Description:
alpha/beta; seven-stranded mixed beta sheet; globular; binds magnesium ion
Amino acid sequence: MIFVTQSPLETENIGRKLGTILNKGSFVALFGDLGGGKTCFTRGIVAAAAPESLHLVSSPTFAIMNEYHGAVPIYHFDFYRLTCGHEIIDLGFEDFFLGAGICIAEWSERLGDMLPDNHIKVIFENAGQDCRKITFVAGSPQSQALIDKLNSLETG
Ligand SMILES: Nc1ncnc2c1ncn2[C@@H]1O[C@H](COP(=O)(O)OP(=O)(O)OP(=O)(O)O)[C@@H](O)[C@H]1O
Ligand SMILES: [Mg+2]
């Protein structure tokens, strides 16, 4: 499934819709260009799923992980500075992948084989000025069901 957005708000709004349907154990793996809109999209998810934490959303480049408190906890990672997926184990982040909350991971490219099978892949591409191409790919039947639900929210 592919969306093309023309503004940060449009990208945030897709995140917001996804945020209404994610549940405990969802893993949203964000891929793609620098400045592609991954943090903007994350802000939308958090606006829907943990609105009281919305002001805390920033690129957690220095912290590697931010935690937000919603109906289920949200773990927001930025793996830009990770050199390989196995560093996740050294850093002690593996436990967060086990499904106690919702995971959102910027720079999931870096995860390699540490990427959980049950993930929703979202790829961000700069398509000129304020235009972004956002592609959703399911990593599992469960995530395909979420993408289908998102599609029906978008078209219905
Ligand atoms: N259609 C759009 N969707 C999202 N962001 C857009 C769009 N058009 C312009 N922008 C701008 O692009 C930038 C996207 O920044 P954002 O931090 O969300 O990207 P990112 O993918 O998280 O970057 P990084 O790789 O550094 O983490 C913002 O400055 C935003 O205002
Ligand atoms: Mg970012």
